Amino acid sequence: GFVRVKVPATTANLGPGFDTIGMALELYNIVELSLLAPDELVVEVEGEGVANIPRDETNIVIKVIRQVFKKAKKNPSGFKLKLINHIPVARGLGSSAAALVGGAVAANELCGNALSDQEILEIVTDFEGHPDNVAPALFGGVVVSAQMKSEQGTEVVSRKIPPPYGLKAVVAIPDFHLATKSARSVLPAQVPFEDAVFNLSRVSMVIMAFIHNDWDLLSKMMEDRLHQPYRQALIPGMTEVFEEARQAGAIAAMLSGAGPTLIAFGLEDTQEIAEAMEKAFLRHGVNITIKELKPSP
Ligand code: HSE
Predict the structure, then answer these.
(1) Could you tell me the distance, in angstroms and rounded to a whole number, from the CA of residue 12 to the centre of ligand 1?
(2) Among 28, 42, 56, 128, which lies 20 to 30 A Cα-Cα from 63?
(3) In angstroms, rounded to a whole number, what is the distance separating the alpha carbons of residues 143 and 131?
(4) What separation in angstroms does the CA of 290 have from each of 2, 32, 175, 204?
(5) CB under 6 Å to ligand 1: residues?
(6) Site to substitute for ligand 1 among 25, 184, 185, 238, most atoms within 8 A of C-beta
(7) What is the pTM of this model?
(8) Under 8 Å between Cβ of 22 and 135
(9) What are the C-alpha distances in Å from 92 to residues 88, 151, 156, 213, 277?
(10) How do residues 100-151 score in pLDDT, each as one tens digit?
(11) At 21, is the secondary structure helix, strand, or coil?
């Protein structure tokens, strides 16, 4: 068998929804998988990450493929895996979730879809540590998810908010990498009660805004006190990029996942927003690539 899977980039958190909400974007990785004799392994990489992605058993996509085969009770096999990557790596656009979801879905197809989407979601979330990129990479659209850990393993509950969303994302991708691990290490162990309540109210409203396509509501509710203030120091110019994107007409501006990519939402003409973000970043010595992407259904 030969299987080809297309998986979207994702932007996690969406402002106040830390580890909870994510949106799929129209930028895709392709994962191709076929079976080889049990002792053979071929890993090919094209595009983003080509210089650094391991070609052996330490590759996380190979690991998740093996996990799917194990869970589906299939005999171990050899594989030819090809990753055709368009999602920039370690930029906060869900490249690892996309690679893992692609590998897991492809492996499951080779197993005759023995596992459910829910099982795939939980296997991949275990690899990733949090579900907010994984769920929209698997289901598309905007997905709200919750991870429930117990002795039996991880349960992930997720709900998709159906499209259309009618937004355009102006995605400003800095030319430096930021590992999620480092961007999580700056987060505090405790937050003020007031900040928790601040986020609780706003993230609830953000979900309402996406359900009703209510962009006035969204524009008021995208502030965050749980992660962005602590990560600001890792992304030179972050606050100014947000401010200037909004002055140029953006509905909202936020850190994409753990960063360093920043995203602004616009409705129609987003050219001015893109220019404003680029200028603000350049003043801080950060070169960026701009992509204008629609949510992926
Ligand atoms: N919610 C995660 C974070 C996304 O902000 O750390 C990173 O992939």
Answers:
(1) 6
(2) 28
(3) 10
(4) 34, 28, 11, 29
(5) 12-13, 18-19, 130, 132-133, 180, 183-184, 227, 257-258
(6) 184
(7) 0.96
(8) yes
(9) 9, 30, 21, 24, 17
(10) 999 999 999 999 999 999 999 999 999 999 999 999 999 999 999 999 988 8
(11) strand
